[in-house]
Amino acid sequence: MNTNDDEKIEAAKGVIASIYASQRALRALAPEYKWAGLGNLLGDFGEFIAISHYGLEKAQAGSNGYDALTKDGKTVQIKTNHAAQQIGYRGKADLMLVIHVEENGNWNEIYFGEYDVVENNSTYSARDNKRMIPILKLKRLQEEKNQTRLES
C-alpha cells in the first residue's frame, strides 16, 4: 500500500462518515422512514478498502462469486458489514474477506481466510437462495485461525 492509497482511503472515510451523519439527520427529521437507501454504497466502499489495503486486484465486471484476486491468483469474495448480525453470500471463491465499517468510516477486519471454512460453518436459506453466517461466528473463526497461527 502506498501513500496515495492511504490518502484515498482517508478521503473516502470522510465521505462515508458524512453520508452516515446525513442519514442520522434524515431519521431525526422523519423517523417514520428507514432512510437506508444507500444501495450498494457500503459494498463498494468495502471493496475499495479491501482492494487498496490488501493489495488485491479488482476482478473484472461480471466475475462470478468473487470481487478480487490476490497476487498469486486466488479469488476473493469481499463482504462489508455495518449493522447486520449476519452476512449473506452466493457463489464460490478461494478466500473470503469480511470487513466491518463504522459510521465514521473506520473499518476493521472481521474475517480473512479460506472460503471453504466459512461455507462449512454457514446455513443455506432457500428463501433467499444464499448462504448465511452470523458475524459472531466469523469472528470466532478468525480467532481460531489466529490462535492456530500463533501455536505453529
Task: Describe the protein's architecture and organization.
By secondary structure, this protein is α+β, with helices and mostly antiparallel strands. It has one domain: PvuII Endonuclease, Chain A, CATH 3.40.210. A 5-stranded mixed β-sheet has the order 1-2-3-5-6. α1 runs antiparallel to α2. The longest helix has 27 residues. The protein is globular and about 50 Å long.
Short précis:
The chain has 152 residues and is α+β, with helices and mostly antiparallel strands. Helix content is 42%, strand content 25%.
- Biggest sheet architecture: 5 strands, mixed
Mean pLDDT: 89
Number of helices: 4
Low-confidence stretches: none
Structural class: alpha+beta
What is the N-to-C order of secondary-structure elements (H for helix, E for strand)?
Answer: HHEEEEEEHEEH
**Percent of residues in helical segments?**
40-55%
Supply the CATH architecture: 3-Layer(aba) Sandwich
Count of domains: 1
CATH topology: PvuII Endonuclease, Chain A
What is the quaternary state of this protein? single chain
The number of strands is 8
End-to-end C-alpha gap: 27 Å
> Biggest sheet: strands side by side, in what order?
1-2-3-5-6
CATH class: Alpha Beta
Q: Which band does the percent of strand residues land in?
A: 25-35%
